Structures are given as C-alpha cells and as structure tokens.
Amino acid sequence: MRILMVGAGATGGYFGGRMALADRDVTFLVRGKRKEQLQRDGLRIAGPAGEAVLSQPKLITAEELKSAGAFDVVIISVKAYSLESAMNDFAPAVGDNTVIVPILNGMRHLDTLAHRFGKEKVMGGSVRIVCDVEPDGVIRQMTKLDHMNFGEIDGTVTTRAQALHDTFAVPGITLVLSKDIIDTMWQKWWILSTMGAVCVLGGGNVGEIVATGEHGVAMALAVQDEAIAIATANSHPADAEFVKGHGHRMTEAGSTLTSSMYRDMTKGLPVEADHILGDLLARANGVKAPLLGAAYTHLKVYEGRRG
C-alpha cells in the first residue's frame, strides 16, 4: 500500500516515521529546507522509548508528485492554515480509489476536503501525541502518548478501513479503528481547546499557571467547563471520569505541559486560532464561553501583529 504523508513535521514525521521504520511504503511530501535536512540527517525520532533513525526516508516535492501517480492513502499532517496550499500540492496523488485520512485539529477541514475531493474519499482521523521538532530537526516525543484513531465518517467498519488498520498497525503507534470517529474528534477538540486557551491566557505552562494560586487553578477549570459545554451542546458530551482526570492534569503543580498553539505563539509562528478556537466558538449553540472568547481574541491580536 502506497502511503503519502503530507508533511514531515512533528506529527507527520512521527507517525509516518514509525510506519516507514516498520517497512511500510511511506513517501513524505515535503518542501525546501525540511527536504534538505531529511536528506542530510535522516528522519530522527527521540522520546521515552529511545531513539530511532530512518536514514533514507522517501521524499517527494509537489512538482515531482505530478508524475508519481496515484497513492492508495494520503495522510494529511499539516497545520490547518496550510490546508489549502497542501491540497493543491497533493491533488495529483488522489486517484479514483485513494483514501484521504486527515489528522488535523478541529473539524472544519472535513468539509473542506469533501468539497474538493468528494466526501466518499475522506475518513476522519485524530491523533494524541505531544511532540515538537527541535532546531536540529529531531522529532522530540515529550510523553508516552502515541495514539492514532481513524475511521469512516458514518462509523461503519469497511473493507478499506480494515486494510488501512492492518497497514497502520506498527510498533510505536497505539492504533484504534473507531466506530465513532466524529465523537473521538470532538473529544480531542475540547481537550485541545482547553489546553490552548489556558496556556494562552495564563502565558505559561500548566505548572506556572497553577503556581500563581487559586485564581490560576480556577481559570483552568473554568476554561475546561466552557469547552465541554460546547461539545455537549453539539451532542458530544464528555465522559465524567475522563473529565476528572483531565482536570487533574490541567491543575498539576510543577507540570511543564503546554499546547502546540502556545508553543507556536512563543516562537512567533502562525497559529490555528480560527480552526481550533474560532470554529469551536462558532458552534457554541448558545453556550456562553467568555474565557475561550478572550483566548481567541488574544490570538487574533497576535495574528494581527504578525501581519
């Protein structure tokens, strides 16, 4: 099965790298500087399980992809604000039987992809991992999380979904073929929105925010309540036990946990303000969410300053 991984950053590099290390036929669609880095140094992963190196990853550019033929599956791992340009780049790889599995944040991209390529080609996908690309190109996995969920939008377990499961099932990936991927995506969305908003509003990691005292803790839990209320208003309530556990993680003294959105902001990079928080607020269905709104406003001011 020919797999095209669109993006070889932290998330795409990790999951595509794990598949390639297990002898799956993975090609990474990359651009300029990242391609040069991967050609020179290989794809390197470091984390709790140790280090792994894919010395000669298969790489392809958008121009080269025009003559490469159709792929069996296209996994999209780019930031939401890059989706439009990414679709133009990988479009030549989409044939009559190609399956598209996006592992982006939020939900809006499902409609965008369905409109461009047809809803029958698009599955849902969600990953849970905390990782980043270090300046030297190493993909640093910061916790043991390595979860990848995917499935048909309507929840059926089709022949193609099972075939993808068999292909994606490799060491280093905790894989689930979901019968309710939309709910899985919603659960990640409220978690991601909570972490992103808390770190943006607090201006630091979880431990730093908690160290400010009761107001920091109260803010974190109130943001979580707002995000869960919106998910519930969209018929995707959160599991009570999981909420309790997540609340503990959001208020853990000394925790260095942050969100990718906050890390991107501190580096002066673009952020997924509209796709993560803006779209969530647009689906509030009457739920009042002033703290999420404040975090979104903060991010929009940041984007305005970036120009």
TrEMBL record:
EC number(s) on file: 1.1.1.169
Similarity-based family: Belongs to the ketopantoate reductase family.
General function of this protein: Catalyzes the NADPH-dependent reduction of ketopantoate into pantoic acid.
GO CC, one annotated term: cytoplasm
Stored NCBIfam families: apbA_panE
Domain Ketopantoate reductase C-terminal: 180-303
MF GO annotations: 2-dehydropantoate 2-reductase activity
Organism field: Terriglobus roseus
Keywords: NADP, Oxidoreductase, Pantothenate biosynthesis
Catalytic reaction(s) noted: (R)-pantoate + NADP(+) = 2-dehydropantoate + NADPH + H(+)
Pathway assigned to this chain's UniProt record: Cofactor biosynthesis; (R)-pantothenate biosynthesis; (R)-pantoate from 3-methyl-2-oxobutanoate: step 2/2
GO biological process: pantothenate biosynthetic process
Protein name: 2-dehydropantoate 2-reductase
Residue intervals of the Ketopantoate reductase N-terminal domain: 3-154
